[in-house]
Amino acid sequence: MMGRQGKAQIRTFTQNARRAQIVEAAIETLAESGYRKASFSRISQQAELSSTGMISYHFSGKPELFSEVARTILDTAQKFTTSRMSDERTHHGKLSAYITSAFDFITTHPVHTRALIEIVTMIRDRQISGLDSVERSITSVDQLTDLLQQGRDAGEFGITDSLTTALAIRGAIDEILRHHLSRTTMDLNRCARELTTMVDRCVKSV
Fold first, then answer.
1. Domains along the chain with CATH numbers
2. What is the pTM of this model?
3. What is the band of 183 on the pLDDT scale with cuts at 50, 70, 90?
């Protein structure tokens, strides 16, 4: 007979699986319908749940659900970028991988990208409260700042302010992606090459 500990482990696994199912449905709903129409009812239908009560059982409300959605997307993007960067041995190579991975992610994960854009728009429109930590995570340039500082310390980069440089690079990436997503279709591979070349010249140690 299975003890209480075994039952608790099964229950925890089942609950985690259900939460993941709901999060994935929320991602798809945000991407397809936009945040204004991403109701619990639509998400419940997308997840093929029997009622919206199953969402409420696992998430206290939209702030908690959309926070988990953003965390899931950001974690996926982080792993994607880190994997690309880990293949490089120089800081210049890692910086190039950081930039190109941002453009490659939008191509390989279009649904996640659109869903995250909807969350960003939702936050900026102040349509929902309780997402301050999500906004900080989305706008964070800590990883890039650390990479630039390490490259500077190693003598590969000739920059004087890692944070300012990181903000400039991230801003350029986000602006190109914004134009691409706003129906101004752009050649992302060409954009990645151009931006990588420009940044490489700007940060190069002389």
1. 1-59 (1.10.10), 69-203 (1.10.357.10)
2. 0.85
3. low
